[in-house]
Amino acid sequence: MDAALIEKAKTGNEHAFRLLVEKYRMHVFHTVFAILRNQQDAEDAAQEVFLKIYASLPQYENQGFKTWITRISVNHAIDMKRKKTRRQEEAVIEFQPEFHHAGKAETAEVIVLKKEQKIFFEKRLGEIPDNYRDVIEGFYIKEKSYHELAEEQQVQVKTIETKLYRARQWMKKHWKEDDFR
């Protein structure tokens, strides 16, 4: 039965594709949920998976439909999880200078977040290796710009960017994610 529906769906028959979606909807959902562990994310991912399946149907070569859609589901869920993890890491550590030094128009939320962040770094500053400590203290605690830090240390701005990047990598590696919340 799947083979006939697949062939019809390949020719653009939307009803045939809807029947395939209905048949495999829960399988795809359970597959992505097993990876993402979040219902809303899994629902979104399942919809996106079916869009990928629809777009990829012309390349499907009857090698086992359920296996094929499972592979697409797993790969998509892993990609989503990686993106989400990256976004969380960036939100936690990769504070942008524009955000960090927002100026006069700071909202109460930004002010509170900056204060918490400052307290966090003051408490943990001693754990940071010496070669990163000065840029972490200058940027996060004293709230200096890249340019101010570069002038003080008599180095290029790019050097400060590199040191901050490496310091953030060190923190990601040595501190638990919960430490940043």
Automatic annotation (TrEMBL):
GO molecular function: DNA binding; sigma factor activity
RNA polymerase sigma factor 70 region 4 type domain span: 123-171
Residues annotated as domain RNA polymerase sigma-70 region: 20-87
Family according to the record: Belongs to the sigma-70 factor family. ECF subfamily.
Biological process according to GO: DNA-templated transcription initiation
Organism: Heyndrickxia shackletonii
UniProt name for this protein: RNA polymerase subunit sigma
InterPro entries assigned: RNA_pol_sigma-70-like (IPR039425), RNA_pol_sigma-70_dom (IPR014284), RNA_pol_sigma70_r2 (IPR007627), RNA_pol_sigma70_r4_t2 (IPR013249), RNA_pol_sigma_r2 (IPR013325), RNA_pol_sigma_r3/r4-like (IPR013324), WH-like_DNA-bd_sf (IPR036388)
Coiled coil: none
Keywords, comma-separated and alphabetical: Sigma factor, Transcription, Transcription regulation
